[in-house]
Write a structure and sequence with these properties.
By secondary structure, the protein is of the alpha/beta class. The protein has two domains: 135 residues, Rossmann fold (3-Layer(aba) Sandwich); 88 residues, HUPs (Rossmann fold), CATH 3.40.50.620. 44% of the residues lie in helices and 24% in strands. The protein has a ten-stranded mixed beta sheet with strand order 3-2-1-4-5-10-9-6-7-8, with helices on both faces. Helix 10 links the parallel strand 9 and strand 10. The longest helix has 18 residues. The radius of gyration is 20 Å and the shape is elongated. The two termini are 23 Å apart. About 6% of the residues have low confidence.
């Protein structure tokens, strides 16, 4: 059974992510868990010495009410979980996602730091969690993902293991996009040969490759996505190779702060 974790702080962005997660869970037959973290330091002093279950009961009741609504509307299994913690929120969510197949988080960009975990925190979780993370902007509504762009500056290797599982599950096609700062006939030929080798060696007949020439990587990826009306954008968070690591993390950070479509962040 596929298991999806969706953290929430009961904000509008979180509620939107829950609605998206519920619709996706129904689409693929997944179980959904709503997860709320309560900081121990935010509890009244007297409650810190009482039974935490009792102290957190109102929050649990609120979360269970959301679960009941999700189950009534979407006819899926939805569980509620509240966890009192004193650790960093990013670490808690990343660790709790272990054992799940997908982590879905709402985000409203990096400018609003008053939210419980949105903004820069969603980016930090996306690159730290071991499972794939689907970031849902607050203005993004659910639609079936049938086409996906995978932005990656591949050379000889193209990470696809985690992504392929989900595109197969969703019956979605993949277009691998490379952004280059200028055109070169020699580079074009080389890229085509590398792409053909990747397809052949990995048995990926349905994967397409494309290149855009733009000095601004963010602009190149975003404009390509919007122009071709794709459903979701995939990015790989590379955990090694210093230069490549910087490239992908900076692109993930920039895109997670400024787009209105789903971002699927996965790892090698």
């Amino acid at each position: 059974m596929i298991k999806i974790l969706c953290p929430t702080d009961f904000s509008q962005a979180a509620d939107n992510a829950i609605a998206y997660a519920a619709a996706l869970s129904k689409r693929i037959g997944a179980d959904l868990t709503l997860f709320n973290v309560q900081s121990i330091m935010a509890l009244p002093v007297i409650e810190m010495f009482e039974d935490r279950v009792v102290a957190l009961q109102p929050i649990m009741e609120k979360l269970k009410a959301q679960c009941d609504q999700v189950m009534d509307v979407f006819n899926i299994t939805c569980l509620a979980e509240v966890q009192p913690e004193s650790r960093l929120l990013v670490d808690i969510i990343s660790k709790r996602s272990n054992g799940f197949d997908l982590l879905i988080m709402g985000t409203n960009g990096s400018d609003d730091y008053s939210d419980f975990f949105f903004g820069s925190h969603s980016y930090q979780v996306a690159i730290q969690a071991l499972v794939p993370v689907l970031l849902i902007p607050s203005a993004c509504r659910y639609k079936e993902v049938k086409t996906m762009v995978y932005a990656y500056d591949y050379e000889q290797v193209l990470p696809l293991v985690q992504l392929s599982k989900w595109t197969e599950l969703l019956a979605a096609t993949i277009t691998v996009l490379k952004v280059k700062d200028h055109y070169s006939r020699a580079a074009e030929v080389t890229s085509r040969e590398v792409a053909e080798g990747i397809v052949h060696s990995n048995n990926l007949p349905d994967v397409k490759f494309d290149t855009v020439y733009e000095e601004d990587t963010f602009g190149g990826v975003h404009h390509y996505f919007v122009k071709n009306e794709y459903d979701a954008l995939a990015l790989c968070s590379v955990q090694h190779r210093f230069i490549t690591n910087i490239f992908h993390k900076s692109l993930i950070k920039e895109l997670s702060a400024g787009v209105n479509y789903p971002l699927f962040i996965f790892h090698k």
